[in-house]
Design a protein that fits this description.
The protein has 698 residues and is an alpha/beta fold. The protein has 16 helices and 29 strands. The protein is 20% helix and 19% strand. This is Glycogen-debranching protein.
Length: 698
């Protein structure tokens, strides 16, 4: 609670910058609302205060400039909580206006928000009650970054690790002081560093509504766990803070970023600018609907009560409106400038390529504005290059610098490893960086973010343990989630104690991860896959905030051999620059060794089975980029039985076995000094496995 000296005097204030800004004279408040006819600022002593200690009515002749409402509250202390009320016309059908002077609104620019009094479902049933909305917090704390800046690691070194801040440390086995928080994650940084990843990709950490779920899901006691329901795009999520009522949001998030940077790990935020938690016509008014519904959302041109929904979440942000585009870019630049994050992954980014009527734009202003921003120039920008209404832009997302989640990579690698025949030509293209998607429009292998699993779908262990989804726990009658996960259960559905099935599942998991780390492009791992975390076959665990969905840290010991395999894979990739090329492979001799950059093979050298509809084998030889780097030879056999591969003869090169997914630990992945020689000209690769040889000078 702040110390008060109300009533506070006011001055006209100014429109820029938006939000609540601490100045020498006090705090300046400013918000955008084009068609509002009046505005009130409500000031609270704390997050749980039952009543505001002062309500300031703004004068349209004094506190209104262009489309902004503003006031400076003299000597107001930081820590004050606040909301807005906007008056204006209610005409949802004709103009899309939804002003309601009874509804308190959270500032879209609030640097911290609290939700102590927010009850979404009571609001839905009983209507608006006094002072029942989320509140912004005035922040002014100084912060010592101790010289920290966003990291500038070369893009080709990137290995992304997607994790959920809450779920990563909420399990009792995590053993942290503050489970489920930014500070709790700090305690697990040594684990991340030992794993070898270069960046964490944090699932949504901007303030989101945990209560935004369908009625049946809410009645089942579930909530919005993943966080793809944002409303406060400048505020860290209060649920991940130790003391949000005191406005600690920014400090605790900064502590996390600084600690990760000290460990050499970058921070990528998964951001949700395609929709908000306000939903469609039946959803609550929290913020944007009350300030400028017709500006912030895409509405039907004939009946503006109807929200265009290209996201599957009830609304679509009108991202290419000039003011909304500026808002989005300002938010991103804030997180880079003030929070030192290193990049962003944009959820359903193709929805941001649409105009106000929902039509795809050839050159969407907001996407080009992000690409060309000076502040964001060195930030990773990653698109989930599709939306929920069929716009699929993998390989054609607007811009040049944008990296993309490569959904085509995921799908073909899953099919190939489960044993689908006739895919080797496309598999080779994906392993080589997806030139068919990126080369023609002047992009590079680094534009492709390769993955076989992510938060959305099966975990790695479930991918090899279930042939169908098991989502009944989500309280939607198993209708949610993908019906075709391109998975294979290895002969038995779900849990089993059959040793042969379990061994095959581990081998398949190794195959998927090995192909991922051996591919050109940027690899992304899902947190927990390295220790075979399961969700019990649930391929849409978005509402499961419970032990079944959290990272179980006892798996680190129980599946230590798998963890060691993944660490070894990452180390293998790191010591082979040839796996991290900035340019596409072309088969020509460009290496120091005088070898073609890549040679493709089948069972015999230089005879890849491109046109064989039954082929499930592929091999390739990768030339080094540096004199100190070994030659790599990879032989892949996704047939159920063993096959013999004839090795290419390279004068002066001796082969050593580095990796064999059919072997048990510790011989599945071997450090260079311990690798056994392979003097034979033929390599036996067991069924459903792959072998990697390193070739060094004799």
């Amino acid at each position: 609670m702040v110390a008060l000296n109300a009533p506070y005097h006011t001055l006209p204030g100014h429109r820029h910058p938006p939000g609540a800004t601490v100045e020498d004279a006090g705090v300046n408040f400013s918000v955008f609302s084009r068609h509002a006819s009046g505005a009130e600022l409500l000031l609270y002593a704390g997050a749980e205060s039952a009543e505001p200690f002062q309500v300031i009515r703004l004068d349209p002749e004094v506190n209104h400039t262009f489309f902004s409402w503003h006031v400076l509250v003299v000597d107001l202390p930081p820590g004050t909580h606040y909301t807005w009320r906007m008056d204006g016309p209610f005409d949802p059908q004709g103009n899309g206006w939804r002003f309601d002077a009874e509804v308190e609104l959270v500032d879209p620019w609030a640097r911290a928000v609290n939700v102590c009094g927010w009850d979404r479902w009571r609001r839905q049933v009983e209507g608006v009650r006094p002072h029942d909305s989320p509140r912004g917090v005035v922040l002014a704390e100084e912060y010592d970054w101790e010289g920290d800046t966003p990291l500038r690691r070369p893009w080709e070194e990137t290995i992304i690790y997607e994790l959920h801040v809450g779920g990563f440390t909420r399990h009792a086995s995590a053993g942290v002081a503050h489970p489920g928080t930014f500070l709790g994650l700090i305690e697990k940084i040594p684990y991340l560093r030992a794993l070898g990843i270069t960046h964490v990709e944090l699932m949504p950490v901007m303030a989101f509504d945990e209560q935004d779920v369908p009625p049946a899901v809410w009645q089942a006691g579930l909530r919005n766990y993943w966080g793809y329901s944002s409303y406060g795009f400048f505020s860290p999520h209060p649920g991940y803070c130790v003391d949000p009522e005191a406005g600690c949001h920014r400090r605790e998030f900064r502590d996390l970023v600084k600690a990760l940077h000290r460990a050499g790990i970058g921070v990528i935020l998964d951001v949700v600018f395609n929709h908000t938690s306000e939903g469609g016509a039946g959803g609550p008014t929290l913020t944007f609907k009350g300030f400028g519904n017709e500006t912030f959302y895409c509405l039907d041109v004939l009946d503006r009560r109807i929200y265009l929904d290209f996201t599957g979440c009830g609304n679509t942000v009108n991202a290419n409106h000039p003011l909304v585009a500026r808002y989005i870019i300002d938010a991103l630049e804030y997180w880079v400038r003030e929070m030192h994050v290193d990049g962003f992954r944009f959820d359903l980014a193709s929805a941001m390529a649409r105009d106000a009527d929902g039509q795809p734009l050839a050159n969407p202003p907001v996407l080009w504005g992000i690409e060309l921003s000076d502040t964001l120039a060195t930030s990773r920008i990653i698109a989930e290059a599709w939306d929920a209404a069929g716009l699929y832009q993998v390989g054609s997302f607007p811009g040049y610098r944008w990296m993309e989640w490569n959904g085509r990579y995921r799908d073909v690698i899953r099919r190939f490893v489960r044993g689908d025949p006739g895919l080797v030509a496309e598999v080779a293209t994906r392993l080589a960086g997806s030139s068919d998607l990126y080369q023609a429009n002047l992009r590079h292998p680094l534009n492709s973010v390769n993955f076989v699993t992510c938060h959305d779908g099966f975990t790695l262990w479930d991918l090899v343990s279930y042939g169908r989804k098991h989502n009944l726990a989500n309280a939607e009658d198993n209708r949610d989630g993908s019906d075709d996960g391109l998975s294979w259960n290895c002969g038995i559905e779900g849990e089993t104690e059959d040793p042969e099935v379990l061994a095959l599942r581990r081998r398949q998991a190794k195959n998927l991860l090995a192909l991922l780390l051996l591919s050109q492009g940027v690899p992304m791992l899902l947190a927990g896959d390295e220790v075979l975390r399961t969700q019990g076959g649930n391929n849409n665990a978005w509402c499961q905030d419970n032990a079944e969905n959290w990272f179980d840290w006892s798996l680190v010991e129980r599946n230590a051999s798998m963890l060691g395999f993944v660490r070894g894979l990452i180390a293998l990739r790191q010591r082979h620059p040839s796996l991290r090329r900035r340019r596409f492979l072309n088969g020509r001799a460009r290496s120091d060794a005088g070898l073609p950059d890549i040679r493709w093979h089948g069972l015999e050298p230089d005879q890849p089975p491109w046109d064989d509809p039954q082929a499930r084998v592929l091999a390739f030889t990768l030339a080094p980029l540096r004199k100190t780097e070994p030659v790599l030879h990879v032989a892949i056999n996704m047939e159920p039985c063993a096959r013999r591969f004839t090795l290419p003869q390279l004068p002066g090169i001796a082969w050593f076995r580095a990796l064999d997914t059919a072997s048990a630990s510790p011989t599945d992945l071997i450090e260079p000094d311990l690798q056994p020689p392979h003097p034979a000209s033929v390599l036996l690769v067991r069924g459903r496995s792959l072998v990697v040889l390193e070739g060094r000078g004799e």
